[in-house]
Amino acid sequence: MAPSLVEKESAMKNSARNLVAMIVLGLGVMAPTRTGPAGPRPYRDLSAQWWQWATSIPTPDNPLTDTTGENCMVGQRGDVWFLAGAAFGGEVTRSCTVPENKKIFFPIVNILAWNSPNVCGQDSENLSVDELFEGIHPFIEGITDAYATVDGRLVRHERRVRSDAFEITVPEENLFDAFCPENVPAGIYSPSVDEGIYVLLPRLSPGEHTIVINAENSDAGFDLHITYKLNVEPVLLE
Hints:
Blueprint: H1 5-16, H2 41-56, E1 80-82, E2 90-99, E3 103-114, H3 129-141, E4 144-150, E5 153-154, E6 159-162, E7 166-170, E8 187-201, E9 207-217, E10 222-233
Helix pairs in contact: 1-3
């Protein structure tokens, strides 16, 4: 028998709860009125890559569950350095060393929805991209008192993003285990989609820098305050 509308809505809500890295800035940014991709192409591509990075790392070494910053370099590659949020919200202070030749990309707030038939509360029916977006959009709309600063200066060039569909590959010991009724099997999950507000910083000068991220969603019981103490190190070429 086909699932009822109530059962489908419940499945979408359960899938939406598999979020894990909610963090952001950007009050006053208008929400897109369509459920397709939105935001500048580089941000859309990087938001998908950010989630692929975050979900691919086993929980013990994952930067999202790190309370000190000791895992901030795990999985980093290319010319963009990703900063993580906090998988469980709350207040976190991290210290991290970053090469000076890296741009820095991070969500001020974001949320993931992923198609997972028979996993994490979803029934056996596949969810479409539009259904996945419908499940996560209310969380972003409910964000209040959100801001990010770099060295005490308010970030004003954030971008609201709705990603293209992408796939994630998760290990056996993964972030979703803490949010789902049962352990989530390792594997590839597709489609996955993201909605959030992101910042792409230019390369920071060598030395110490402080990034602060704050966001709330009282209806979802979400409260986040992250402080990053970055040490930007010169890259010595022989």
